[in-house]
Amino acid sequence: MDNLDYGIIGNCRSAALISKNGAIDWCCLPEFDSPSVFANLLDDEIGGSFEFVLDASYTSEQFYDSDTAILITKFTSGQDCFELHDFMPRYHKDDGTYNSPPELIRYLKLISGAPKFKVIYNPKLEYALGKTTSFLKKDFIASLTHDVKYDTVFLYTSFDKKKVLHGEELTLTENGFFLLAYNEKIFLPNTEKAFLELERTRIYWLDWSQKTPSYKKFDKEIKRSALTLKLLSYDKTGAVLAAATTSLPETIGEVRNWDYRFCWIRDASMVIKVVSQLGHKNVAKRYLQFIIDLIPDKDEKLQIMYGINKEKKLTEETLGHLKGYKGSKPVRIGNAAYEQLQNDIYGILMDVIYEMISQFSIGIQNGEELWGITKGIVWIVEKHWQEADKGIWEFRSEDRHFTFSKVLCWTAIDRAIKVAEMLDKQHKIEQWKPLEAKIRKDIMDHAWNEEKQAFTQSYGSSHMDASVLLMESYGFIDAKDPKFVSTVLAVEQDLSNDGLLYRYKNEDDFGEPSSSFTICTFWFINSLFKIGQEEKALKHFEQLLSYSNHLGLFSEDIDFKTKRLLGNFPQAYSHLALIECAINFSKKDSEEKVLEFIGE
């Protein structure tokens, strides 16, 4: 498989990636960041997978059950045809809580004939570090490892377990199921119960999707992206993951391979903003609580990222025994970037707090907590905004005065003033306004490059950087300001490659980037739209949409030459930016229709 032709299924506790031909090549249980059960994605020899083998007469097609996270792979050979419905159960229980067990169901629906297939069931627990052995038991197949650490999973099925375990041919004569569970089941599953789980899960996702508004343009893409963002949210704490995978390379054969199964404050905050806009307020509220829970001390510095269960230490390790996706080593788990200083996160967090207070009726207790955090953020920014940092792209070597970080320090103070205005804290408004003006002047004086006629990557630099496009989004500069317009054109001139954007082109710790960071192209499209080049923006947007995989999903990066998807997958950041662009085009369309209607 040359592209990331995978679908994602999940239940807001964990997720699995399923290939175009129905193979589970990535799945971690019981949670997103647990060690893998199947990691064929990272090593097609020893990683482990759960796949169906059919003879060459079968063709397959794959699609989502409309407006749900249930993935259907349909296999057809003349008269013989069946569908594989893959999902992780999720639905409301009678007591109002969710049923989201650490398990995965593969429901086989017979369409016609008597299809024949074999199953390769090959779990490799604990990232395939030790040997996993599978045993035939009375009610299930048990797989366990104890070489490195003890772990087990259980497979229940309506098919002959011995034939399944030995990869012998099976014939589908009626609907059937496979249920992979992290815990041994107290009540034995059967096909009827598996179907009931499927129907309950379908209803849950249909209800959830129903809350997403319908848009005139790109409605299908917005809904699929919203569902993908929901699949990357972790119910237990409210965290939102950057992606469901680790170590999928930004460029094949290179070493930019990171673990993204964590909650980056920057990504997640942007997710919350967009998801709230789509009407999914609960996701937003729970994420805000996740943040509040992480800030116990008034002077504690905020990390750029946390574990999904609020872990603060995310030690990076290398799994040397895995050969990596398409041979791209190393495979990493954990992420050393958690120790980096990135000054932009305070602005991002403050922006979210401002959004929340504007959008929701915040109770007194929560309001007092948020006001306390606001004052703490201003105190930290005032002390540290003049320091250099690692920046949005997490340069691992020298610190610089990155324009994006400075703009977000300004954003922190600007939003804090707005919050103070809402809460009628006059004394603080007067105290903070000079700081806001001072940071703004500093950026205007030092980030602008006269020769380039643009705001550049860092103070004194001539390098362009896609992140400066966000100056307008955060309200630092007006879209029609000549300085912003010429910055957009300079970014296009220096960073665009066949309609796709580099993040930056100067060398970083690993050389010059050779793939496009998907979100940067979305930012560029948004900026073109804002400066009035709407037709050009729409053309670029439609071209970018054509690079998604067969299910409309995007990863972190796109190869400039081949347009194949690269990097961790699916990427929350990419889908978030897609939604933002699509809503702009859709709103524009609606506004034009209204004007037409009233005769202007």
Automatic annotation (TrEMBL):
Residues 8-130 form the Trehalase-like N-terminal domain. InterPro entries: 6-hairpin_glycosidase_sf (IPR008928), 6hp_glycosidase-like_sf (IPR012341), GH15-like (IPR011613), Trehalase-like_N (IPR045582). Residues 222-582 form the GH15-like domain. It comes from the Bacteria. One of its GO terms (biological process) is carbohydrate metabolic process. GO terms for molecular function: hydrolase activity, hydrolyzing O-glycosyl compounds. PANTHER family: GLUCAN 1,4-ALPHA-GLUCOSIDASE (PTHR31616:SF0), TREHALASE (PTHR31616). This is Glucoamylase (Glucan-1,4-alpha-glucosidase), GH15 family.
